[in-house]
Design brief:
The chain is mainly α. The chain has six helices and four strands, in the order ββαααββααα. Helix content is about 50%, strand content about 10%. Strand 3 and strand 4 form a beta hairpin. Helix 1 packs across helix 3, helix 1 crosses helix 4 and helix 1 crosses helix 6.
C-alpha cells in the first residue's frame, strides 16, 4: 500500500509498500535470466525475500499476464513479455491498485461531488500525471540497462586504478 502523508510542516511523503518493492525486484530478477524458468525458491534465496511473501505477489502478476508459469519438477517463472514492455507503473498498479495521490482521482470519471468546484483538483491531477508519466516511462529493460552501465563504469574505474598502481614496469 502506498502511504501518503501530509505532515503539519507542509511536507508531502509518498512511500511504496514492501510488496511493491519486492514485486519490482522479482520482475528484474526474472528479466536477468530471460531464457530460464526460475523456481520461486531461487528468487527468494537470491533476493533475500521470504518465499511466502513472493507466493502472495506472484498470483497478482500472473493474473495480469506479466508472468509465464510452468508447474512441475522443471517448473518456474519467467516474464511473459519482453522487459521493454513491462513498465514500473504497470507493476506497481498491479500490486497496489491506483497510484493516485488523492482518492477522487482513482476513478474515471471523477466521482467526487466537489469535482467541478474544487480549486485544488488541478494540482492533484498534475501530480498524478507526473507520477504516472515517470513510472510508465521506466521499463524493466531501463532498469537492466542502468545496472549494466553502472557495472561498466565500476569496471573501468577499477581498471584505471589498477593501471595507475602498476605504473611503468622496469626489468
Amino acid at each position: 500500500m502506498i502511504s501518503v502523508t501530509n505532515s503539519d510542516k507542509g511536507s508531502f511523503t509518498m512511500k511504496f509498500s514492501t510488496r511493491d518493492r519486492y514485486a519490482l525486484r522479482l520482475m528484474v530478477e526474472l528479466a536477468n535470466r530471460p531464457n530460464d524458468l526460475i523456481p520461486l525458491k531461487d528468487i527468494s534465496d537470491k533476493q533475500r525475500i521470504s518465499l511466502k511473501y513472493l507466493e502472495q505477489i506472484v498470483p497478482l502478476l500472473n493474473k495480469t499476464g506479466m508472468l509465464s508459469t510452468t508447474r512441475g519438477y522443471q517448473g518456474g517463472y519467467r516474464l511473459a513479455k519482453a522487459p521493454s514492455e513491462c513498465t514500473v507503473g504497470e507493476i506497481l498498479e498491479t500490486t497496489e491498485g491506483s497510484l493516485a495521490p488523492v482518492s477522487c482521482l482513482e476513478h474515471t470519471p471523477n466521482p467526487c461531488e466537489r469535482c467541478s468546484a474544487c480549486d485544488t483538483l488541478p494540482v492533484w491531477e498534475g501530480l498524478n500525471r507526473v507520477i504516472m508519466d515517470y513510472l510508465d516511462g521506466i521499463t524493466i529493460q531501463t532498469i537492466l540497462d542502468q545496472k549494466h552501465e553502472l557495472e561498466e563504469k565500476h569496471r573501468l574505474a577499477a581498471e584505471e586504478i589498477l593501471n595507475s598502481v602498476k605504473g611503468p614496469c622496469k626489468l
